[in-house]
Design goal:
The complex is a heterodimer of chains A (752) and B (199).
Chain A: H1 6-9, H2 16-33, H3 39-47, E1 51-52, E2 60-62, E3 67-69, E4 78-80, E5 83-84, E6 89-93, E7 99-100, H4 102-115, E8 119-122, E9 128-133, H5 138-146, E10 164-165, H6 180-190, E11 205-208, E12 223-232, E13 235-244, E14 256-263, H7 267-281, H8 292-299, H9 301-314, H10 320-323, H11 349-358, E15 359-361, E16 367-372, E17 378-380, H12 381-394, E18 399-401, E19 407-413, H13 417-426, E20 441-442, H14 456-469, H15 476-479, E21 483-486, E22 500-509, E23 512-521, H16 526-529, E24 534-540, H17 544-558, H18 565-581, E25 598-599, E26 602-605, H19 623-643, H20 647-666, H21 677-689, H22 702-712, H23 720-744
Parallel strand pairs in A: 10-11, 11-12, 20-21, 21-22
Antiparallel strand pairs in A: 1-6, 2-3, 4-5, 6-9, 7-18, 8-9, 8-17, 12-13, 13-14, 15-16, 16-19, 18-19, 22-23, 23-24, 25-26
Chain B: E1 6-16, H1 23-33, E2 41-46, E3 54-60, E4 63-68, E5 75-80, H2 88-108, E6 116-118, E7 122-128, H3 142-159, E8 164-167, E9 176-181, H4 188-195
Classes of the chains: A alpha+beta (752), B alpha+beta (199).
The structure holds protoporphyrin IX containing FE and iron/sulfur cluster.
Iron/sulfur cluster is lined by residues 443-445, 449, 451-452, 456, 486-488, 490-493, 614 of chain A.
Chain lengths: 752, 199
């Protein structure tokens, strides 16, 4: 039997930080298993590692006739409120700006077939998702991802989510400049940053290179950055127009302008200031009003801006704000092949069709961006490593995911296009129609999402099949329309910003419920998600293909020359738009049309019984609870190190666990304590020890003294006994920290 | 030898005269009727939009049943994900008997009966465990060779002494894969009987 695990095999390939974070998470899993962690704290902890719940993980499933209990073992073991430990879940994998290397694709493919169902799913925010993953497998999965520089940290939970960026950045015809290195620096700066740990809700940033196109979708994000160049002192100066408070969801908000021009050196401190204002003033209790859009709306943008400016002035300086700027002049992507041209030869009509829809001519002559059109955002493990090889051959590491759930290969030398097309086709990834009406976006919906009402993916698959059959004969006016579908009002499928959008809901007919989709018309994808569509009425799910036909035919008949779909909807108005779908809004009785009472791709009689508690919002737990939990995990690791006869490591971990606990406590009063042990101990001493706040009735300052002693007198050669003692002390110290926080807590005084 | 993290066995269709979609209601019914009492069946995943991939999955806690079209070789793939056994032989026994049970369920299902047939004279066996069973380039290949011998030894009593287990020469990133070829196609019930499964 081998005892060697991925942890050992990959020890040299992971960065120390990532490796350590994963060990801590594994320790927290272990503690949860022993019932030593609060379920909400653990839920938020795993969410901040991208480990999400999935449909049926409360142990209930409706089988079409009745709701049945799923017979999981150890039902008392949970991984969050109402979430069974053994039930498979979803893993979200963060891909900043969608940027991927061929080696990363290889590893993604491998973890998908060993830990998931062999399918990689690209999300609407350039991430990957794997489904049906067992929580026990997540630490090793994270290690394998970490070995190629991927982290799942803060992929979910109330934190800064994936930082998105146009997939064309750097090669785009219309961009002001390449936003990629800024978005990368931004993602790195905020990852795990102290000031983003205490949000009441998630926070989604996006970068875009130009105003008119859609790619960055800055208008619908919590924070959006639009590249700008201004003349300052006669010289061109780079910066961004900064937006705040956009967002979709039930109540969509267009972002407001926070600043017309923030120079490049100010974007990180300004964001940090925004984060602090959001953490301090954002709603924490009512999760439905906790996104920053509600805070901006409540305060008004002027007041919000004033608060951010005030906050900015008080921030302690951080070199990282500008350090990355020095590297910008050297930032470049390297093509693997020289530029060439596609001319002369006659190609098949198949190729020409693909060329028309899936190929974008780069700003750099002789190169193109190829969109690999993924049906419903899915690809198999096998396709993924085959795609990695194709990437290596033609473009190297110039691969990105897109917010339309596709993958692009950048820097394709033009004369390679025909052979590249053949190779993509051979692996089942040569579908034309990228960005057209057949390239439908859909959230996970009832397939896997706990909040799903109707089957967004089932509907998307059906529409895709039907529209593909007739795509050649579709009038030009509708070929490029966008269809986007969400399984419920939460809008993860971004239906508000499509020409024809749908979100799932339900209506009753007799004693039965019928899956429905609300029809949203005339949203604007371009202009960075420029405006939101009009909700015109709900139709039974099974009528949607006909509804799409009817709406598009009317548009073709009635449009005036050059009139866009949005303009047409604007012209006819909501009432007339509703009239168009009215004939489909009648509900047949079950006996008349039983097929209307089940959803696309799911023969079960429709029910809402499977909806569970979604984890989109994460759990609101105190900053202290989140920060003390890794301390506990480290103390636990120290015990393991001792069992493994490694007293030096045990001593080190025990000490580090005390520092973490002290830091968590200090941060209830003073957020900017930083990471230096000296500073932490000094602040702990002056704020809690010398003031006797830390003292308890019987032990007085004894437990606090443990930290002070170990800090000032490290043992150069710890042996098993001394390490054992220190671990005991660490455990007592952590307990005392908890006790102190609950005595003084609730009275948190934030000093800047 | 250590039980691999996951182990899968795929039997190929000899005939398949229905769309893969037809498996969706069947799999939902299997969940409802709990047709595999020693496994927990959870849900059905529809991936038929993917070309040449796992088209329809019956997802379970211990295992997945997949109507799989990969490499244009349609078959019923059984992926054992956990609790397969303490070592490779044990895991193979569990996986094979559950896979064959799946074959039997499929062939005798009220809706599928007569519309498909699976062959038992060939199968594909995959060790989904790149840590303990790396494929070629990685490591010296000792684990692969030993696994091949073990599989041959374990399968001979079931599929005949002339049955061969050959290594599939696939890419190093792919999992370690073997093909079983038997001179004749044993009866599913007989195989299940030998494996000690009630079937
Ligand atoms: C109340 C709960 C939820 C709300 C309000 C919500 C809202 C949203 C919104 C508005 C987006 C897309 C647009 C954006 O970038 O802002 C999004 C993205 C997404 N949501 Fe949700 N969501 C919720 C829960 C869920 C759940 C339970 C799932 C199930 C898996 C899910 C899956 C996704 C996916 C896959 C994306 C693309 C995101 C990414 O990669 O970061 N959402 N969500
Ligand atoms: S829109 Fe609704 S159904 Fe779709 S993923 Fe979001 S929460 Fe789930």
């Amino acid at each position: 039997m081998s005892n060697i695990g991925w942890k050992d095999v990959l020890a040299d390939e992971m960065s120390d930080d990532l490796a350590h974070e994963i060990d801590i998470f594994e320790g927290q899993m272990e503690l949860m298993g022993q019932g030593k962690l609060d379920e909400k704290v653990f839920a938020e902890t795993r969410l901040r590692r991208g480990v999400y719940g999935q449909r049926y993980d409360n142990g209930q499933r409706h089988d079409g006739f009745e709701s049945r209990e799923l017979d999981f073992e150890e039902k008392e073991r949970i991984k969050g409120p109402d979430t069974l430990w053994h039930a498979p879940g979803m893993q979200r994998i963060k891909v900043p700006g969608g940027g991927l290397t061929a080696d990363q694709l290889d590893v993604l493919a491998q973890v998908a077939d060993e830990y998931s169902d062999g399918i990689l799913h690209v999300t609407t925010r350039q991430d990957f998702q794997l489904h049906f993953v067992h929580i026990e497998d997540t630490p090793d999965m994270m290690r394998r991802l970490a070995s190629v520089g991927i982290t799942t940290r803060e992929a979910c939970g109330n934190s800064v989510r994936n930082v998105t960026c146009c997939h064309l950045a750097g090669v785009c015809q219309t961009e002001v400049f390449d936003a990629t290195p800024y978005s990368e620096a931004y993602a790195q700066f905020l990852l795990g940053h102290d000031d983003v740990q205490d949000f009441g809700r998630k926070f989604k940033p996006a970068f875009s290179g130009c105003e008119a196109e859609a790619c960055g979708l800055v208008m619908m994000h919590d924070m959006g950055y639009l590249a700008q160049i201004r003349e300052v002192d006669g010289k061109p100066k780079r910066g961004f127009k900064v937006f705040v408070g956009g967002g979709l969801g039930t109540v969509p908000h267009q972002a407001k302008v926070l600043s017309e021009f923030t120079p490049e050196e100010e974007i990180l401190p300004q964001t940090q200031a925004v984060a602090r204002v959001f953490a301090r003033l954002g709603e924490k209790r009512n999760r439905n009003r906790a996104r920053i859009k509600f805070l901006v709306a409540k305060l008004g943008i002027e007041e919000f801006r004033r608060l951010v400016d005030e906050e900015r002035k008080t921030l302690p300086h951080d070199d990282r704000w500008t350090a990355y700027l020095d590297t910008l002049p050297h930032y470049e992507e390297k093509p693997t092949r020289p530029p060439t041209f596609l001319n002369g030869q006659v190609h098949s009509s198949e190729f020409n069709q693909w060329l028309e829809t899936n190929v974008y001519a780069q700003r750099q002559e002789g190169y193109s961006v190829v969109t690999v059109n993924l049906p419903l955002g899915d690809l198999t493990s096998q396709q993924t490593w085959e795609l990695a090889d194709i990437a290596r051959k033609y473009v190297g590491d110039n691969v990105r995911t897109t917010v339309e759930q596709n993958i692009v290969l950048r820097w394709v030398s033009d004369s390679d296009l025909p052979s590249l097309y053949e190779e993509l086709k051979a692996i089942g990834l040569g579908d034309p129609g990228a960005g057209t009406i057949v390239d439908i976006t859909a959230c996970p919906g009832t397939d896997t999402c706990k909040l799903g009402i109707a089957s967004s993916r089932g509907l998307a698959g059906e529409l895709r099949t039907r529209l593909t059959v007739k795509s050649a004969s579709l009038p030009d006016a509708i070929k490029d329309l966008k269809i986007k579908i969400s399984g419920c009002f939460n809008s993860c499928g971004q239906h508000h910003v499509s020409d024809i959008g749908f979100f799932g809901n339900s209506r009753r007919s007799g004693n039965f419920k019928m899956p429905h989709f609300q029809v949203i018309l005339g949203g604007k994808w371009r202009d960075n998600a420029g405006s939101y569509g009009l909700a015109v009425g709900a139709v039974p799910s099974k009528t949607v293909p006909e509804v799409v036909d009817t709406i598009t035919s009317r548009y073709v008949e009635e449009r005036t020359k050059g009139e866009t779909f949005q303009e047409w909807i604007g012209r006819i108005g909501k009432k007339e738009a509703r009239n168009i779908i009215q004939p489909y809004m009648q509900l047949p009785a079950f006996e008349q049309q039983p097929e209307f009472f089940s959803d696309w791709g799911d023969p079960r009689v429709f029910s809402l019984g499977d909806i569970g508690i979604g984890e989109c919002a994460g759990e609101v737990v105190s900053l202290f609870s989140m920060e003390i939990s890794p301390a506990e995990s480290e103390a636990f690791e120290a015990q393991i190190a001792l069992d493994e006869n490694d007293p030096a490591r045990a001593d080190d971990l025990a000490y580090s666990s005390m520092l973490k606990a002290a830091r968590a406590l200090v941060r209830t009063q003073f957020l900017d304590v930083g990471d230096s042990p000296d500073r932490i101990v000094q602040e702990f001493k002056s704020r809690f020890f010398d003031t006797e706040l830390f003292f308890d009735q019987y032990a007085k300052g004894k437990f606090g003294q443990y930290l002070l002693d170990r800090h000032s007198n490290p043992n150069p050669n710890p042996d098993n006994d001394s390490a054992h003692r220190l671990i005991e002390e660490a455990l007592l110290f952590i307990e005392a920290t908890h006790a102190c926080e609950s005595r003084v807590g609730g009275n948190v005084l934030v000093e800047i | 030898m250590i039980a691999p993290h996951r182990l899968s066995v795929k039997f190929f269709f000899e005939e398949l005269s229905i769309d893969v979609e037809s498996f969706i209601p069947v799999f939902h019914r299997w969940i409802r009727e709990n047709v595999v009492p020693n496994e927990l069946l959870l849900d059905v995943a529809d991936y038929k939009h993917i070309v040449d991939g796992p088209a329809i999955l019956l997802v379970g806690l211990e295992a997945d049943y997949v109507v799989d079209l990969t490499d244009a070789k349609p078959g019923l793939l059984y992926v054992r994900k956990r609790d397969a056994g303490s070592d490779l032989s044990d895991a193979l026994g569990t996986t094979l008997s559950q896979a064959l049970n799946g074959v039997k369920l499929t062939e005798t299902d009220v809706e599928l009966k007569g519309k498909l047939k699976l062959r038992t004279d060939a199968a594909m066996i995959v060790l989904l465990d790149r840590l303990n069973y790396p494929n070629s380039a990685n490591g010296d290949g000792a684990a692969a060779t030993a696994a091949q011998t073990q599989l041959s030894d374990d399968l001979a009593p079931l599929f005949g002494d002339d049955a061969t287990v050959t290594r599939v020469d696939n890419d190093a990133r792919e999992p370690l894969t073997f093909e079983l070829h038997a001179p004749s196609a044993p009866d599913v019930d007989a195989l299940l009987g030998q494996l000690g499964s009630v079937g």
